[in-house]
Amino acid sequence: MTALQPVRGTRDLIGEEFRRHHAVVEAARRASALYGFEEWATPIFEDTGVFARGLGDSSDVVMKEMYTFTDRGGDSVTLRPEMTAGVCRALVSNGLTQSNLPRKVFYAGPMFRYERPQKGRYRQFHQIGIEVLGAAEPLADAEVIACGWDILVALGVSDGTVLEINTLGDAESRDAYRAALVAYFGVHRDALSHDSQLRLEKNPLRILDSKDEGDRAIVADAPVIGAHLTEAAAGFYAAVKAHLVRFGVPFRENPRIVRGLDYYSHTAFEFVTDRLGAQGTVMAGGRYNGLVEEMGGPPTPSVGWAAGIERLSMLLPAAPAAPRPVAVIPVGDAAEGPALDVLQALRRAGVVAEIAYRGNLKRRMERANRIGARAAVILGDEEIAAGVAQLRDLDAGTQEKVPLPEVPGRLA
């Protein structure tokens, strides 16, 4: 029988890989908590309409990448390809749109997209992210970015990572910019890829994000939005940049960063690195002032970002070390009961402790070395009678007798 393997585009997180993954999530959880974010968890699958509305019917994710199926009740459901839409749906579904705004949300979990697996990208992948729901001020944009920067610093991956920012302006700015893009790309229509020709009709901003080499050559000379900003939009962008300076977050402006959907506005940003080859974006986000409305709620200006855990874990300078346990070793059958008492006393004191299920002293010591134990607590008939344990430092090779009540304190 052929051994079963993980489905293409998925993988197991075991040992060092899991420790890297866990380190990213925990660093993000701690940093976001300092900014007042609370953690939410939404379902892994949603009504397909949540993502069709949230990502746009013409987006590549909706058209090509979503895992969508009809369940046994005849409903169309989709494994979540991202989480922002689900968070906005949760805000509306739980009746939270009218009280205690803004809501500051942190999340972490698996997402699903059917695309070609490549370095740092899988069909089941994982993200962390934050959203500020119900804040229209530029300070919210800057604080969201600053929190992301603090996470990168905490992980030790900020060196070689650069924040790039742009503005998408307000609705009036975008309308003027869209018209300029239509005029420009219309002249080059025949040279555009088939996908970008379709985008020209539906959403020309998305041409700016095309990966087609021919498109990118044309995009290089396309208009930028700066010349089309209203006074209010320019002021908003200036305020975001001023706040970032105050927060001590370095950045550079990149007028090619865009978001194609109409409800995105003002700030768009990406943290990018040159340490992952072509897949250089490790965190990306922006302001979206219409997504909660798409979910059936009232106008709710919001801003946030998402980051791929796989990519961030690849950037970690080293995998976090596994905790080194203490091995509790009974010598003889009569010692097993007292050894279990010591084992649980160690665990209650916060000490990682293990006991081998079988074997003589030699075999149990061999196992202690295999699991990387830092110390061994050895109990035999003589030790039990004297109320002590032999405490062996497995790094230094030293050994001493320690009264049983003192063992947890010596190893904590």
UniProtKB/TrEMBL annotation:
Matching InterPro entries: aa-tRNA-synth_II (IPR006195), aa-tRNA-synth_II/BPL/LPL (IPR045864), Anticodon-bd (IPR004154), Anticodon-bd_dom_sf (IPR036621), His-tRNA-ligase (IPR015807), HisRS-like_core (IPR041715), HisRS/HisZ (IPR004516), HisRS_anticodon (IPR033656)
The answer to whether UniProt assigns keyword Protein biosynthesis to this entry is yes
Catalyzed reactions: tRNA(His) + L-histidine + ATP = L-histidyl-tRNA(His) + AMP + diphosphate + H(+)
Q: How does it assemble?
A: Homodimer.
What keywords sit in the KW lines?
Answer: Aminoacyl-tRNA synthetase, ATP-binding, Cytoplasm, Ligase, Nucleotide-binding, Protein biosynthesis
For this UniProt entry, the molecular function terms from Gene Ontology, in alphabetical order, are: ligase activity
What Pfam family does this protein match (any one)?
tRNA-synt_His
- Tell me what gene encodes this: hisS
**NCBIfam families in the record:** hisS
Please state which protein family the record places this protein in.
Belongs to the class-II aminoacyl-tRNA synthetase family.
Q: Where in the cell is it found?
A: Cytoplasm
Q: What PROSITE patterns does the record tag this protein with?
A: AA_TRNA_LIGASE_II
Question: What's its top-level EC category?
Answer: ligase
Name this polypeptide is given? Histidine--tRNA ligase
Q: Which organism is it from?
A: Roseomonas fluvialis
Query: Which domain of life does the UniProt lineage start with?
Result: Bacteria
Query: Which residue numbers delimit the Aminoacyl-transfer RNA synthetases class-II family profile domain?
Result: 1-330
What taxonomic classification does the UniProt entry list for its organism?
A: Bacteria, Pseudomonadati, Pseudomonadota, Alphaproteobacteria, Acetobacterales
User: What Enzyme Commission number(s) appear in the record?
Assistant: 6.1.1.21
SUPFAM superfamilies cross-referenced by the UniProt entry: Class II aaRS ABD-related, Class II aaRS and biotin synthetases
